[in-house]
């Protein structure tokens, strides 16, 4: 529910941590919980594809020993959690999301001991580690599926969904139009069809089967015992979605998420579940759970698409509108914000006209688009490597309501390789140095053997965009992003507080403030190409205490009452304000 105050400012209801509001929402409030129990609310998450990050042995594939050697880089950047893409045994037909063994590390990436060493080293630097749990499907090479297709009488048969005659699939049912033409695949060994939501080599698991739920619990428990702090639940809607499936289904499909949450909480009390659920606003609440007993974290696909549209239009309204559509998170739940992730930039929640606007601005060539709904580019090329706009986008990422996640390489402005088919265009090798092979692998290694392609030429090649050069430049994107991350961690209001939009008299400016435990922070972002003086509707108690960040060419501010605030073209500010708490009887 969105609250609107007497000044016309829009935001979420006051004091999200109050027991009264928590009771109104039917959720668990902060109560006796301390912020340290809710570490994920003020976390900064860094997404790593191990295959693409650092090759330690010269075979052209990034690995866990290489990743461990870069932990101090992550610690220096200021991230507090690392989210690893799947590292389990896999044929790698879908970048590891086609899992063939949930308990083993793919030998090309290292051993279980290497994973434990990485987790221990990261933990020593104050960094938690999460990874994907891919429970919506397996690889068709997984032992469960091999046994399932061996005979109709196999005890593993019902781990998957089989039919004699599949229903007709409408085009809207296809996740990857143009790559798959049906959700059903004929298996000539047993003369039936099996169901898949994604690629045909990823048969869908049957989450209603009690043995499957037991398997899920064992897998999660095993990796928590290794030292992980939580999991990203891949394709969460397809764990519980029953549309188009034959036969009677579970009466309460959400019970699976509650069961998994209970298992994780019992095994490790501070572990979290992060859901990938690109659904409509009215469906989001269901994934948090009526009593806060399902997922703690959800990716903010809606905010992401509003942000991209706002950057394209250079106006604040699309982002403000999407923020207003979010259901209020409880005291123990949070949305996770991102700008780019490891897949396509999906624009499916925008209208056709809005999507065309974004395509025109950021993906004008057909080869830059995918599935008719997404963009397969990284942010820096989308914004023409304009550092002002990149800084603006990352300032929004780190200050908007929610927990930020940063895709590896975005902090230096890496580009994409459109010669790589499909979504793999953004999964390029990390660019560490201007030397041969970009510091990703030994200079003697043939780049043709790299699992993740290396960008060698052009404005985003490793000789022009790399960590080593940007470390030495105080004004580089890397150093600006690092400063934002450190400032975000020192500003707990942004992670824990109650936010609201603040009315601004400039259409290019998004303003929101956050209050928590007597502190108050105001964030201002000018999405337009011209400087401006913005007037805000603030209460009389608001006065500047500290300019926390500053954005580029923004003029300095004096402490005291705020009247009109100058913002540079694509400027941004985080301001700590005086805030008198109102005490009522």
How would you describe this structure to a colleague?
This protein is α/β, with parallel strands linked by helices. The chain has 2 domains: 3-138 and 227-487, TIM Barrel, CATH 3.20.20.80; 143-195, Alpha-Beta Complex (Oligo-1,6-glucosidase, domain 2). Helix content is 27%, strand content 17%.
What order do the helices and strands come in, and which of them pair?
Elements: E1 3-4, E2 10-11, H1 19-25, E3 45-48, H2 50-53, H3 64-69, H4 71-77, E4 81-84, E5 88-89, E6 101-105, H5 112-124, E7 128-133, H6 143-148, E8 162-163, E9 184-187, E10 192-195, H7 210-226, E11 230-233, H8 237-240, H9 255-267, E12 272-275, H10 281-288, E13 297-299, H11 301-313, H12 317-325, E14 334-337, E15 345-346, H13 352-362, E16 369-370, E17 374-375, H14 379-382, H15 387-399, E18 403-407, H16 467-471, H17 477-489, H18 493-496, E19 498-501, E20 509-516, E21 519-526, E22 532-535, E23 543-547, E24 560-561, E25 564-567, E26 572-577
Parallel strand pairs: 3-4, 3-18, 4-7, 7-11, 11-12, 12-13, 13-14, 14-18
Antiparallel strand pairs: 1-2, 5-6, 8-10, 9-10, 15-17, 16-17, 19-20, 20-21, 21-26, 22-25, 23-24, 23-26
Helix pairs in contact: 7-9, 11-12, 11-13, 15-17
């Amino acid at each position: 529910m969105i609250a609107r105050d007497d000044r016309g400012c829009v935001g979420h209801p006051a004091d999200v941590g109050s027991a009264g509001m928590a009771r109104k929402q039917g959720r668990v409030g902060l109560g006796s919980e301390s912020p340290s129990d809710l570490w994920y609310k003020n976390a900064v998450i860094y997404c790593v594809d191990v295959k693409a990050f650092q090759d330690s042995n010269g075979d052209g594939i990034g690995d866990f020993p290489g990743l461990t050697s870069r932990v101090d880089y992550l610690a220096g950047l200021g991230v507090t959690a690392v989210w690893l893409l799947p590292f389990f045994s896999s044929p790698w037909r879908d970048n590891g999301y086609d899992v063939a063994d949930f308990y083993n590390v793919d030998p090309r990436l290292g051993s279980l001991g290497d994973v434990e060493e990485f987790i221990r080293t990261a933990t020593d630097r104050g960094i938690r580690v999460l990874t994907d749990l891919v429970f919506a499907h397996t690889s068709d090479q997984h032992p469960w599926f091999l046994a399932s297709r061996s005979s109709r009488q196999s005890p593993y048969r019902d781990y998957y969904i089989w039919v004699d005659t599949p229903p007709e699939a409408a085009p809207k049912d296809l996740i990857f139009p143009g790559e798959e033409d049906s959700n059903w695949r004929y298996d000539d060994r047993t003369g039936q069809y099996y169901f898949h939501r994604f690629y045909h080599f990823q048969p869908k698991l049957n989450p209603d089967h009690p043995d499957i739920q037991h398997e899920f619990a064992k897998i999660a428990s095993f990796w928590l015992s290794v030292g992980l702090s939580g999991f990203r639940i891949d394709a969460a809607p397809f764990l519980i979605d029953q549309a188009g499936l034959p036969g009677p289904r579970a009466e309460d499909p959400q019970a699976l998420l509650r069961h998994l949450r209970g298992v994780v909480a019992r095994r490790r009390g501070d572990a979290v579940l992060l859901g990938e659920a690109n659904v409509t606003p009215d469906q989001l609440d269901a994934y948090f759970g009526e009593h806060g007993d399902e997922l703690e974290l959800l990716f903010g696909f809606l905010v992401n698409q509003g942000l991209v549209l706002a950057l394209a239009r250079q106006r604040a309204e699309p982002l403000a509108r999407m923020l207003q559509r979010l259901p209020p998170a409880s005291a123990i739940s949070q949305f996770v914000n991102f700008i780019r992730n490891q897949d396509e930039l999906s624009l499916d929640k925008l209208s056709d006209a809005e999507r065309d606007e974004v395509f025109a601005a950021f993906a004008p060539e057909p080869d830059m688009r995918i599935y008719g709904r997404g963009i397969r580019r990284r942010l820096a090329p989308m914004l023409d490597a304009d550092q002002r706009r990149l800084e603006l986008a990352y300032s929004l990422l780190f200050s908007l309501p929610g927990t930020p996640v940063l895709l590896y390489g975005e902090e230096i402005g890496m580009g994409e390789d459109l010669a790589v088919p499909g979504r793999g265009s953004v999964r390029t090798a990390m660019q560490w140095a201007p030397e041969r092979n970009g510091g990703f692998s030994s200079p003697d290694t043939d780049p043709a053997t790299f699992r993740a392609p290396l960008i060698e030429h052009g404005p985003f090649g490793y000789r022009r965009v790399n960590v080593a050069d940007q470390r030495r430049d105080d004004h580089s994107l890397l150093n600006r992003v690092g400063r934002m991350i450190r400032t975000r961690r020192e500003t707990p209001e942004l992670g824990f507080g109650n936010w609201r939009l603040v009315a601004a008299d400039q259409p290019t400016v998004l303003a929101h403030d956050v209050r928590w435990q007597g502190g108050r922070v105001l964030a201002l972002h000018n999405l337009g190409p011209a400087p401006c003086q913005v007037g805000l509707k603030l209460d009389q108690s608001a006065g500047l205490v500290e300019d926390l960040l500053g954005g580029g060419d923004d003029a300095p501010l004096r402490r005291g009452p705020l009247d009109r605030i100058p913002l540079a073209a694509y400027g941004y500010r985080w301001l700590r304000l005086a805030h008198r708490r109102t005490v009522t009887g």
